[in-house]
Amino acid sequence: MRLMIVCLAAALSASSLAGPAARAEEAPQTAPAASARQLELTRRYIALTMTDQFEDSLRQLIAQQAQLDPNSNLLPAEDREFIVELSVELTTDMIPQMLEAMVPVYARTFSEEELEAMIAFYDSEMGRSILQKTVASMPEANEAAMSVMPRLMDKMAARICQYYGCEAGELEAVQRGMRGEIPVAPPRK
User: In this structure, what are the phi and psi dihedrals at residue 128, rounded to the nearest 5 degrees?
Assistant: First the structure.
């Protein structure tokens, strides 16, 4: 049973690594505070790069992520649909707050000169075209990246079995559990 708990935890960890809302790295605590100009430039940069098309792509990514999640088949279709719709609704509602929370991070990360250069680029015809194509390709690119997840889960299961010493036939069960093909139940008390 300990093995199954480890596998469940590993599957959840791997799923969170591939999720549409990747975690941003924290800035070093010694980073100087951003200037008012950096904050202003960062808001302009975000306004240029986080377009309405970004929101549409985010909606598509959330729906796609739910379909690709190996554990999604553990829920009835009606529940999966509810969770996807709720996630899309709440994420979309939170986009303005998410973007504002990003401002100090980018402002500390980029110099005024770098922010001005990024703004000049994304405000140009070429920059807008590249951004539009990048955002439009996000769902397909995410699907391509996620296509390797079953192999990652299989390799993870094999390493877990190697570490914990699975018995004959357990590896396949662990792999299927990590891919969400069969439920992985916690041990009974």
Answer: -65, -40
Length of the chain: 189
Nearest alpha-carbon partner for 56 in 139, 144, 123: 139
| DSSP-assigned letters across all residues of 166-182 | PPTTHHHHHHHHHTTSS
pLDDT at site 94? 85
Looking at residue 35, its pLDDT comes to 93
Exposure letters 33-71 (e unless 16+ CB within 10 A, then b): ebeeebbebbbbbeebbbeeebeebbbbbbbbbbebbbb
Residues with Cβ within 8 Å of 90's Cβ and at least 6 positions away in sequence, in order, are none
> What is the C-alpha separation between 66 and 71, in angstroms, rounded?
9
pTM: 0.59
**pLDDT by residue (tens digit) across 20-41?**
444 444 444 566 789 999 999 9
Q: What is the DSSP string of 137-162?
A: HHHHHHHHHHTTHHHHHHHHHHHHHH
- Interatomic CA distance for residues 106 and 7, integer angstroms: 36
